[in-house]
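Usage

Read records sequentially. Each one opens with the input sequence:
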Amino acid sequence: MAVELNHTIIWARDSKASAAFLAEMLGLPAPSHWGPFEVVATANGTNLDYLDRDGEIASQHYAFLVSESEFDSIFGRTKDRKLSYWADPGQARHGEINRHDGGRGLYFEDPNGHLFEIITRPYGSGGWNPRRGQGTKPSERSATGPC
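and closes with the structure output:
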């Protein structure tokens, strides 16, 4: 059997609302309830299991590979909800998307401060490598406005 990621737990102040937020943003089916979890299922079979937690929640990063049309839909929902988005995980390039590997990508936060990323090309698939300084020209790294 090949090793696959089956699930991960995402801490939330309100697991039901947080799971619904992610499912709606990504255009996925409504979350299901299993035990103490609100479960968001992805197309590749990996589940994101939301669990309520009191107190501080450490921000985590989750990246999703999406098609070009899915990117357009998610980006549209991001703008419709007036959510902040960034081209980079350090959140320095607000209101921009990146164009790594000939695709498009952006980051947005959920209500708990988790940083979600959507990309249309797997990193490295087009030769982009942040350690080599590639993608430093504005035309290679980001775009503002309509895509």
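Summary fields computed downstream for this record:
- The radius of gyration is 16 Å.
- Residues 134-147 have pLDDT under 50 and may be disordered.
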